[in-house]
Design goal:
Blueprint: E1 2-4, H1 8-15, E2 19-27, E3 30-35, E4 61-67, E5 71-72, E6 81-87, H2 89-103, H3 109-116, E7 118-123, E8 149-153, E9 157-162, H4 165-174, H5 181-195, H6 207-212, H7 218-226, H8 240-244, E10 251-257, E11 263-270, H9 291-302, H10 319-323, H11 330-337
Parallel strand pairs: 2-6, 6-7, 7-8
Antiparallel strand pairs: 1-9, 2-3, 4-5, 4-11, 8-9, 10-11
The structure holds iron/sulfur cluster (2 copies).
Residues 235-241, 274, 295, 324-326, 328 line the site of one iron/sulfur cluster.
């Protein structure tokens, strides 16, 4: 099916009758997922957002209130269903990994409930930016599953493909024109062109092993302590890289008692293994006291080698590179580990 670009605001407004719709919006020079009830400000030409759409599913929240004699879980957010419009393949891939983590061995009802009430309109990428490298990882620039609807920019219109029954119901309400074989050929041509535009790449196969077998490689000292790898400065332990990473899901849970000591809350907040306190345990022992150990741990996790394995590994969105104040680049670290 085809959705003409001029009809996008109308389509979003129509879908807003049933869903709380979020999409990429440009504010100053940054793009972020914001609520767009009438499609106003929607920017489907975007290359990346500062924070990935995980912010809508996994974020700081109060898990329960407790009182001296009992406790109660706060009501989960409104029952309204959420629609994410314009999610890129790398981010969709990351959401699928997070779904596995939060629903496989231990079910996180807060996360799962939000995901059950969400639908995703994905958007294939036409123009990757100079920090993207999803093509090396098979997580972009196109996507084949995990969406309810999938859009591909064909110029005047988007090709719309259906992924689920929810997606089918949505398009039935939009009354779209049928697409022809020519439109699918044009989609394939545009994606082939997009694949040629990547400036960065990474050789990921075997990289976690390579990192694990080289714990004292010079790369760790350069990025952690001294700087100098491909022009980077030393890591500042700011945690930006993991906060913006769509596959980082670590969080901490804190008990916060009221001053009366008769009640309090249990709160979850996102955490980062790049922060000094992350590996701090009783009696002040810290398993990763130095920045080189923390950057090594985080990167090894992104290479698929830490506890999260494929669920936390990289999808090539490039956000950690864009947001690192020390210009540390995961793809350059990989090159160094490979001896390139
Ligand atoms: S490690 Fe960096 S490039 Fe890879 S998914 Fe996370 S933020 Fe994106
Ligand atoms: S964003 Fe850069 S400086 Fe900050 S913790 Fe990550 S690697 Fe270190």
């Amino acid at each position: 099916m085809l959705l003409e670009k001029v009809r996008i605001p109308w389509a979003v407004a129509h879908l807003s009758k049933e869903y709380k719709v979020f999409g990429p919006v440009t504010r100053r020079s940054y793009v972020s997922f914001q609520e767009i009830p009438d499609g106003e400000g929607l920017n489907l030409e975007y290359t990346t957002t500062t924070l990935p759409p995980k912010k809508l599913f996994h974020h700081a929240e109060t898990l329960l209130h407790y009182h001296k004699e009992d406790f109660s879980a706060p009501k989960l957010e409104s029952d309204q269903h959420v629609l994410l419009f314009g999610v890129h393949p790398c981010d969709l891939n990351a959401i699928q990994r997070m779904d596995k983590f939060f629903s496989k061995d231990y079910i996180d009802s807060y996360y799962c409930r939000r995901r059950e009430r969400s639908v995703i309109v994905a958007l294939n990428c036409g123009v990757p930016d100079d920090k993207c490298f999803c093509a090396s990882l098979g997580t972009g620039p196109d996507v084949k599953e995990g969406f309810d609807l999938l859009l591909t920019d064909l110029g005047e219109a988007y090709l719309v493909e259906v992924g689920t029954s929810k997606g089918k119901t949505m398009v039935a309400k939009l009354g779209l024109k049928n697409a022809s074989q020519t439109h699918f050929h044009e989609k394939a041509r545009r994606l082939r062109e997009a694949s040629k535009k990547f400036k960065k790449q990474i050789r990921m196969e075997g990289l976690a092993k390579q990192a694990a077998e080289n714990p004292n490689h010079e790369a760790w000292a350069l990025i952690g302590d001294r700087g100098g790898l491909a022009g980077c400065f030393a890591c500042l332990s700011c945690g930006n890289c993991s906060m913006v990473c769509p596959t980082c899901y670590c969080y901490e849970v804190a008990e916060i008692p009221d001053v009366s000591l008769k009640e309090g809350i249990r709160k979850r907040e996102l955490d980062s293994c790049q922060l000094l306190e992350y590996a701090l345990v009783a009696l002040g022992q810290n398993f990763r006291p130095d920045r080189r150990y923390r950057t090594r741990h985080w990167m090894t996790c992104k290479f698929g080698g830490a506890g999260g394995q494929q669920n936390t590994s990289c999808v090539g969105c490039g956000r950690c590179i864009r947001s690192c104040p020390s210009h540390i680049d995961l793809t350059e670290v990989a090159r160094s580990l490979w001896g390139e």
